[in-house]
């Protein structure tokens, strides 16, 4: 948690965010992009 990442798909594709939480059972990261928290699949994120 706290790592920077780039979103690869969806409305926020190309934006950089910070990982706030990990849900390994469901396969999602909770990522903060600006003031917005989004849940995004592991496959749709690239570490930066």
Structural features, described:
The protein has 48 residues and is mainly beta. The protein has one domain (4-47). It is 0% helix and 56% strand. It contains no helices and five strands. The chain has strands spanning 4-7, 16-23, 28-33, 36-41, 45-47. A five-stranded antiparallel beta sheet has the order 4-3-2-1-5, with no helix packed on it. Strand 2 (16-23) and strand 3 (28-33) form a beta hairpin. It is globular and about 25 Å long. It starts with a strand and ends with a strand. The mean pLDDT is 96.
Features:
single chain; 48 residues; mainly beta; five-stranded antiparallel beta sheet; 5 strands
The number of distinct structural domains comes to 1
What does the largest sheet look like?
5 strands, antiparallel
Helix content: under 10%
Order of helices and strands: EEEEE
Number of distinct helices: 0
What class do helices, strands and sheet pairing give?
A: mainly beta
- What is the β-strand count? 5
The end-to-end span amounts to 13 Å
**Radius of gyration based on Cα positions:** 9 Å
User: Based on CA inertia axes, which overall geometry fits?
Assistant: globular
Arrangement of strands in the largest sheet: 4-3-2-1-5
Task: Return the average pLDDT rounded to an integer.
Answer: 96
Give the low-confidence spans: none
Strand content: over 45%
